[in-house]
Structure formats: C-alpha cells, structure tokens
Amino acid sequence: MALWTASEAAAATHGRATTDWTAEGVSIDTRTLAPGDLFVALKDVRDGHDFVAQALENGAAAALVSRVPEGVSEDAPLLIVEDVLTALEQMGRASRARTQAKVIGVTGSVGKTSTKEMLRACLQVQGKTHAAEKSYNNHWGVPLTLARMPQDSQFAVIEIGMNHPGEIAPLSQLARPDVAIITIVAPAHLEAFNSVEEIAEEKASIFAGLTPDGMAIVNGDLDLTPILTARAPGTCLTFGQSDTCDWMLLDATPGPLTTVCRARFEGQSYLFKIGAPGRHFAMNGLAALAGVAAVDGDIAQAILALGNWQPPAGRGLRCFIALDDMDDQIGIDLIDDAYNANPASIGAALDMLSVAAPSAPHGRRVAILGDMKELGPTEIELHRALARHPAMDRLDVVHCVGPLMRHLSEALPAEKRGLWAETSAELASRPTKLTHAGDVAMVKGSLSMKMAAIVDAISKLGEAVPKEDRENKMGQQ
User: Is 397 left (phi over 0), alpha (psi -120 to 50) or beta?
Assistant: First the structure.
C-alpha cells in the first residue's frame, strides 16, 4: 500500500499535484532519501528547494514545494503548496485522522527518547508499530513522524519536545495521543523559562491534545507532580518509587549490563529486566509498561521485550572496547551518553557510573563531561553544583570540556580532577590520557559540545565487543 498518492497529499494540503505519483515514504534530506520518497523542501539552515533537482535525480517520487525550483521542469512530479511546513503539518494531521492506531505521546526533561524506544520495543512485538526516528520531536519532527505513519499501523509512539513556551500544545493537538506520558520535569531550557514550575506547566500542555477518553501518565515522585496531575483532563496514573504511585517501583538492582526491577500495579507484582544498567532506565521502563497497559497491550510480551532493549547510541549505550588481540577481557567499558545533557540527566548518568563495576581490580570510574547548555543565569552554579552530587564520592576521575564545565573542574577535589579542555576535539586527540584498560568511562554533554568525537576516539583504541558476546563471557566466568 502506498503511503501517499498525489491526490491524497493534494487533498490534505490543498495543494496542486503537477503529475500523478505515489510515494512510499517522506524525506527531508537527500542524503537519506530512499527511491520512492516524497521529498519535503523545508527551509532550515538551507532552503530545501535548492535540493529538489538532486532529490528527483536520486529517485524521489515527487517533491513538496512552494514554487518550482530553478533547474526543475514544469512537468516534474511536484506538489505545489503555499507553505511547505504548513503543508507537512496538514499531512501529519491527515495521517493521524486516517489511522486506527493507538497513539502514545511522550515528553519530559529527561528520558523521553529512551522511553519512546522502550515503548517501540514493547509494542512492535504485539502489532505494527510506528515511532519517531532519532529525536524528531520538534515543530517539523512531529509532523514528519505523523506524515510517515502507515495507515494500517496498530500502535504509534510520538516524542514531543520543546525549547520555548507554547511549543508542546500545538504538537500534541497535531498528534492527538490516546495516552500522554511525562517522564520527568527538571531544569532544562531555563534560558526560555523563569522557573522549573513554568517548565512543568509547558510539559503538562501535552494533555491539550489528548483524545476524549485519553489517559495521562506522569512521574509521581516529583515536587511538581501536583502541577502535572492538575492539568490532566481525565484519567491520570502515576509511576515512581513513592508508595502513593499507581505503578510503583519496588526496587531496581543494576548489574554490569542489565537492571533487574520489581514493580506493583493494582495489587499485581511484576518482575522485569532492562537490557541496560541504571536506575533511571528502570523508571523509564516502568513508564513504558504503564503506557503498554494503557493501550491494552500485553504486559508479559512487553516485559520480554524490555529485557532485550538497549539504549540508542548517545543515550547510555554501553560497549566494551577490547584493547588486547590475545585477551578480549582486557579493555574499557564505555558508556556513550553523549547526545545531550542537563542537570537531571547528568545526575542520573553519574548515579549509573557510580555503581558500574570496572572490568579489572585496578580499574577506575571515569566521567568525561561537556557543558550543559540553555540553563540561563544560574548556569555556572548548576555546573559547579555537580561537584557536590553524592555519586561523585565513588568516581575516580572527572575530565571536563567547555568553559562552563571548567567551573566543575575547579570545584572538584584535586585527586578527582582530570583534564580540562575548551573543546571536545582537544580531548578526542588524546584518548589514551582519558582512560585505560580496566576502566569504565562515561561520556556526556550537550549536543553542541560534540562529545561523540570523544566516544569515537576511545572506541578506535580497540575493537567493540557486542553486548551478547560480553554477556556470554561474563556468564562463563
């Protein structure tokens, strides 16, 4: 079944199709465009109209444009609209209207991508599931995700993010979730908000798009939980460790590669495993199970799926880098959490690192941290305060990247203070100074700090051992 026909797309956007065409997908990037995709000429850093000719040469079924681009013939397969972004939103709205899928929306200051990916894993074993790619959660990412949704999807998971006030409600109204999950509210994007309470109000605006019988699921452990529950228009369930939570996490025991969890809901106990170490992953898994139950999914199948789930690259993915060709037990445990950072997510990452066991008796726990961005006037103190995080007591070395993280470096005890550099490229150029055999090292920072360069540099010191092989080796010891 075609994803879009020319007539369907024209009807949705009130545009004019120059020819009859069918599209199997929707793309905004010629580098990842697949033959048969509808190319959407968005204006961002570059004007997508400049790439229409290339997209058509690469096999695009058609292009969504506001004008016929230079170098493109009048009879080329185009859908001409007044505004491309508005048209993409209209396609997203039409796609949502024509599907019978049960839709889950996910937002939060921390953990929304991991929770979204857990939900994808839990639901795709139960029916045709559509979910956002990467972190496509903004003003173009949400409509793009919806426009890509096959009509016969049974489940859909839509991640919704924000940088400024007023962004979440219209995206939720576009997605119209049957279930809306708020993972956590924490200091993030404080440049655009006056307080964490304002952030909570913005996160709670995801409920603006809930379907009439929709369900809200929120973190019940927060000081700000009352703000979230007060904004829920109908049924609202809580998850967390507090004994007042509907979905209650009884305990979470991190191991070298997994976290074993026990939870309770409506008098029923559940034992489940997350395929990654970390208490914060246990909380995300609990939210995912609550979401599965809310769309009448099978909890037993979801629990099995969570045991096989792994974080995406940059979101806490753990890999063993073998350094010795003769002995693949000699190496570095590398935790790649380099995609983004704020005080709450760095705190969770430090907690995870503090209980991680180095692979050798002499091994160290090493944190490599980059600046947290968009924190407003308190940014210096928020960076310095990380030195007082309880998990720091169990870490051996902390390397820092960026002018803001310099304040953390200076606040650390001398015995824990590692290298400091202005940029990630400087530290990436000397990976052997950062960590060595037997260590467990964690890399984290805001996306603009390009901490992935450090992950790549450490990875290239040896050969990555797949998680399954590592588990087998450890099981034989």
Answer: beta
